[in-house]
Amino acid sequence: MTAVLAMEDAPQVTARFAEMRTVLNSDAPTDTPREQSDAYRFNILGGKTLRESFINAADDTALLIIRCVEYIDPVTQKTRYGVDYWSVLRYWASDHGTRAMAELSYVKAARDEFARPTLLLSRERFARGLASFYDVTDVI
């Protein structure tokens, strides 16, 4: 007897749980009022890091950080799961009440950055895929 585990793809999970909500964005409007931005930024930055990918400069200063975090929504006081994207060029954060959606969004953000880099990086960063692109990543 063989058991097969049925896995849903990203569109199926999104259809079941709804889209991520944008709570911070340096370049565009958000789904939350701008006057709440500082509260969301504070809680997301202080949230528990679940997963992380980052790129440092040669002097070890951060150039790009993508995190999947668990944090407390400053308005509803409920646990939410977010993706926090910060680079020297821009930042954004989105969140969801379901960890699975945040995890999918985190993986997508890390892969999208590799596929279409927003930073000027050395050729060596692209030699071995995600493993050489990021200084630290858990995305395969």
Question: How many DSSP H or I helices?
Answer: 4
Q: What spatial order of strands do you see in the largest sheet? A: 1-5-4-3-2
The span between the termini is 30 Å
Q: How much beta, percentage-wise? A: 25-35%
What's the shape? Answer: globular
The Cα radius of gyration reads 16 Å
Question: Quick one: how many beta strands?
Answer: 5
Poorly predicted segments: none
Largest sheet, in brief, is:
5 strands, antiparallel
Gist of the model:
Helices cover 27% and strands 29% of the residues.
Which features does this protein show?
5-stranded antiparallel sheet, 4 helices, single chain, alpha+beta, 29% strand, 140 residues
Describe the protein's architecture and organization.
The protein is of the alpha+beta class and 140 residues long. Helix content is 27%, strand content 29%. The protein has a five-stranded antiparallel beta sheet with strand order 1-5-4-3-2, with helices on both faces.
